[in-house]
Amino acid sequence: MFDLLDPKSEYYGLYIADGLYYQNSSPNFVDFIAWKDGSVSIEKVADHTVNVPRNVKIQRDSLWGIGTSYALLIDGDISKLNWDVFSHSSEHHNRTITGYDGLYWYSIIADGRTTWDLGLTAIEEVELCQQLGITDACNLDGGGSSDMWLNGKIVTGNYAAERKIGTALIFK
Fold first, then answer.
1. Which of 7, 50, 59, 95 is the most buried (most CB within 10 A)?
2. pLDDT the model gives residue 110
3. Who's near 164: CB < 8 A, 6+ residues apart?
4. Could you tell me what percent of the chain has a pLDDT over 90?
5. What are the sequence ranges of the domains in the chain?
6. Residue range 89-109: mean pLDDT, rounded
7. Within the chain, where are the H helices?
8. Distances, alpha carbon 93 to alpha carbons 86, 96, 121, 125, in Å
9. Considering Cα of 91, then 97, then 101, then 102, what sign does the dihedral take?
């Protein structure tokens, strides 16, 4: 098992849920924050420095926040924030996207590991989100390369898992 609070962990990125602070933001990721007033923000910190006032504000005023790989749309505009960090953003791959249109939340999973479905590039993710009317969106992950456990068993058994999950969004 890995330590979520270890700043050296590759799984280290913002994670706040149910008013509880789990870990600090990381310059390796983009923060997607859902605020209690119904707005969202997508931003990136400069370094691993713990910004206590920012973290207190996020913990106090957010519904949740999570570190994501790269941004797609911010306030309706195309954002290429962090695309350069993830070289596969220009390639066709599995994608898991979270987005918001001001009223509804979206969770989009695009498979890309079959010969008939080539997945999406980042720009194709943007185009899909725009077609759905999503104004704020981030790519969460590739959507198939992580170990996911349910009742003590791996449930992403279709593919050989590359790594453990660092954070997860659970929708009910």
1. 95
2. 79
3. 1, 2, 11, 146, 147
4. 41
5. 15-164
6. 90
7. 52-61, 122-131
8. 12, 10, 7, 11
9. negative
